[in-house]
Amino acid sequence: MIVFELLFAALIALVLGGLLVLGLDRQPFAGRDVALFVVLFLATWAGGIWLAPIGPPLWGVHVVSFLAGGVLIALVLASSSTPRTRRTRGEELRRSRTEREVIRTLDIFFWLLVALLAASIAYRYL
User: Fold this and answer.
1) 80 in helix, strand or coil?
2) How far is Cα 70 from Cα 87, in angstroms, rounded to an integer?
3) How far, in Å, CA of 62 to CA of 51, rounded?
4) Contact partners, residue 76, CB within 8 Å, separation at least 6
5) CB distance 12 to 58 below 8 Å
6) What is the pLDDT along the chain (126 residues), one digit of tens a residue?
7) Dihedral of CA 98/104/108/114: which sign?
8) How many CB atoms neighbour CB 110 within 10 A?
9) Which terminus of the chain is more solvent-facing, meaning fewer CB atoms within 10 Å of its CB: N or C?
């Protein structure tokens, strides 16, 4: 059953991530899109196993619970995204110190979020 939950979470995360990448006018397969998939995948999986079972089971998995968790997180991510701006190489090199500190802080937040989602998934199965 864990395998089917993993597969449904991955499928839902791929579809929602693809819609977000296309809808937010971003180039596919960029590094931030991998991070988007990781967060969507883990949040969909965690939401699916922690939410109350919704709908009929499909191969022992209540898919609607996974879909609800994934859509909720996708909406939060979409609402918090900013429009993409293109920067030249010179502009990338001249990033302010404050911008670099903000990016470093967001990197730390990303890894904390991944760790917490992974821990919540592991705790559910223990």
Assistant:
1) coil
2) 31
3) 10
4) none
5) no
6) 788 888 888 888 988 888 888 777 655 556 677 788 888 999 998 888 887 788 788 787 788 888 888 888 888 878 776 666 666 666 656 667 777 777 788 888 888 988 998 999 899 888
7) positive
8) 14
9) C
Tokens 């918090």 label which residue? 80
Asked whether 78 and 23 are in contact (CB, 8 A), the reply is yes
Residues in the chain: 126
Nearest partner of 113 among 22, 43, 37, judged by Cα: 43
**Residue 123 identity (one-letter amino acid):** Y
- Tokens 């196993």 correspond to 49
Upper half-sphere CA count for residue 46 (Cβ side, 13 Å)? 19
Nearest-5° Cα angle at 17, 15 to 22: 95
Could you give the CA distance from residue 24 to residue 66 in angstroms, rounded to a whole number? 23
- The single-letter code of the amino acid at 58 is L
